[in-house]
Amino acid sequence: xxxFAKIITGEIPCHRVYDDAHVLAFxxxxxxxxxxxxxxxxxxxxxxxxxxxxAGAAIGRVLPRIVRAAMAASGGTGCNVLCNDGADAxxxxxxxxxxxxxxxxxxxxxxxxxxxxxxxxxxxxxxxVMHQSMARIG
Length: 138
Prior knowledge:
The protein is of the alpha+beta class and 138 residues long.
């Protein structure tokens, strides 16, 4: 059972920001900035790849409200919404979760972005595989 599963069941306390039948949002105990909030589905799932459409939709409905609330509480001038999906992407708790991280002065997420270039010869293959995958999923 993950740390987040224990928070959902009440085994571990949290500072709840939002709670409904499908989604729980709570303050991060190791925040990068004021009002740094974690948003999790109550569905136990390690990866976005495996998250049900219903749980994903529930998060999508709530996420903008959580961002607005975090921005209001922090006085932030910007906000990062981050989901590390998988250990190779930096996920540490293997339960789907989104970080809502307001940018407040020098506090917030600091990431180096190293963009590459989209290879025009690769576009058709990428789109073909993605479209086939989307068609199988529904």
